[in-house]
Design a protein that fits this description.
heterodimer; A: mainly alpha; globular; B: mainly alpha; 63% helix; disordered N terminus
């Protein structure tokens, strides 16, 4: 079956229709909310490198924050407390915390980390879950846990012995951009008045390819498409979108530091763009030192 | 017309079983064997984002998307045995359609008021041929999608927003390829008509 062209790739399409169709492109769950749902479903072993969010760091961030005694509720709301440099993807601690934004700090049950080194394949994300099942059998959600707030003694950063020499992220410099990156005043995805429709359609198609690869769990493929975009549409109308996709793809591939660097530049350049929020939520779980730029209103 | 006759057999799960769509998590028992939990885990990891996007695009509001997506997986966890191997995504989408439809109905009246508001907002000052700001573009999209007939809505969302191929959609919705094509055609006509109305200033709705 040969597919018709997507409506958005139709050069005849009005700009209004195109922007309406594209308005859903950024749809994605907040990683912290996603983690909360995973916990409430008793779904674990969401291994790094699997489909979706690649690096385990997003998953670990709330976990570690909770173990450190930070209120789970705060984490659930997404204002994840910075936990310093991004943790290397590694032990998946089984944590039962309230799945929803609870007023009280969630009681924590952290089990012995299962030493599963990061990237597991999507098909076998269960690896980490098996051993944990034995001791605890988490049959129900944390909501059912007795409200005995017994936050484990904050073991402080030593909690995360890097199990592999993963480069993860370099220590964050101050959130302010380096002076060389003087942010130009222009917001990034500003409407461009005159656009060659065919060229735009081609550009959109390239980004769609990247998006599709991402959705299919193939960040490398997505990056290839984005490279093609950068090559063919150096001054493209959708460069900002491409950049956001690249950040996403890098994160999913585990290139946290590259992703963070890119995100920092993006946020420095266009802190108020509609895409900035997306960038912030993408990097939030990875960026310990990023609350400065991540200031959600 | 709900369901348009497609795969309702798959989606008999009763979303009423989940008492509160609110914050408190009901007993989400992931019972069963390790294999079942493993399967649910695999489904979650492979399809959660897809489910989330789907319920959002099918009309669940921003604040309710996480809960709705969770609900889809709760349903899946209860009906795991009935989900055929290889048809997980189809099942999840079918469930997402139901959950989203419940959510839409639940706030049906509010929606109509919102529509009026939208009419007003689109009637003045939307430079019809320029990029709308993201928020208003999204409101318009949500509004248009909400008004598509159920059967065409699914196809439209999967093809135009999710970027699935027609073949994938046919499998996912258990439809003949020709049916997918004709529903898509109808959905597009309606989409373009709605856009035309919006450009004309929201009149004529």
């Amino acid at each position: 079956m040969s597919d018709p062209r997507r409506l958005r790739d139709d050069p005849e399409l009005s700009e209004l229709a195109r922007s309406v169709l594209r308005s859903a492109d950024g749809d994605a769950p907040e990683p912290s909310r996603r983690a909360a749902v995973a916990r409430s479903l008793g779904v674990t072993g969401f291994a790094a490198g699997s489909l979706g969010f690649a690096s385990a760091a997003w998953w670990l961030a709330p976990v570690v924050a909770i173990v450190l005694g930070v209120g789970g509720a705060a984490v659930m709301r997404g204002d994840a407390t910075p936990i310093g440099p991004v943790l290397p993807p590694a032990p998946v601690a089984r944590v039962a915390a309230r799945a929803s934004a609870a007023p009280a700090p969630a009681p924590v049950v952290a089990e012995a980390p299962v030493g599963v080194p990061a990237p597991a394949v999507a098909d076998t994300p269960v690896a980490a879950e098996a051993p944990a099942a034995a001791p605890r059998r988490p049959r129900r959600v944390a909501a059912a846990l007795p409200p005995t707030p017994s936050p484990s003694p904050p073991p402080e950063p030593s909690l995360s012995p890097p199990p592999e020499p993963s480069p993860s992220a370099p220590p964050e410099p101050s959130p302010s951009p380096s002076p060389s990156l003087e942010p130009p005043p222009a917001p990034a995805p500003a409407p461009t008045p005159v656009v060659d429709a065919r060229r735009l359609a081609a550009e959109v198609a390239t980004l769609d390819r990247a998006r599709a690869r991402l959705a299919a769990g193939d960040p490398a493929g997505a990056l290839a498409a984005l490279d093609a975009h950068a090559r063919d549409f150096a001054d493209g109308v959708l460069s900002a979108e491409a950049e956001v996709l690249r950040i996403d793809a890098l994160l999913r591939r585990g290139d946290t530091s590259a992703a963070l660097a890119l995100a920092r530049r993006f946020l420095a350049r266009s802190p108020g763009s509609p895409l900035a929020q997306r960038v912030r939520s993408l990097i939030k779980p990875h960026a310990g030192g990023h609350r400065g730029t991540g200031g959600t209103p | 017309m709900r369901g348009g006759g497609h795969r309702s057999s798959d989606v008999t799960a009763n979303s009423q079983a989940i008492p509160v769509p609110g914050r408190e998590v009901p007993e989400l028992v992931i019972g069963g064997t390790r294999a079942e939990r493993a399967r649910l885990t695999a489904m979650f990891n492979a399809h959660y984002d897809f489910v989330w996007r789907s319920v959002r695009r099918l009309g669940v509001t921003d604040e309710a998307v996480d809960d709705a997506a969770q609900e889809v997986f709760v349903v899946a966890s209860r009906r795991l045995a009935a989900i055929e191997e290889g048809k997980e995504k189809a099942f999840l989408f079918g469930t997402a359609v139901r959950v989203a439809s419940d959510a839409r109905r639940a706030r049906g009246r509010r929606r109509e008021q919102a529509d009026d508001a939208l009419d007003e907002s689109t009637s003045d000052g939307v430079p019809a041929d320029e990029l709308l700001d993201q928020k208003r573009a999204r409101e318009l999209l949500d509004d248009i999608v909400a008004h598509l007939p159920d059967d065409t809505r699914d196809v439209f969302v999967l093809f135009e927003l999710e970027g699935m191929t027609m073949a994938e959609i046919a499998v996912c919705l258990e439809l003949k390829p020709g049916t997918v094509a004709s529903r898509l055609r109808r959905a597009r006509e309606m989409f373009e008509a709605a856009i035309a109305r919006a450009r004309a200033g929201g009149r004529g709705r």
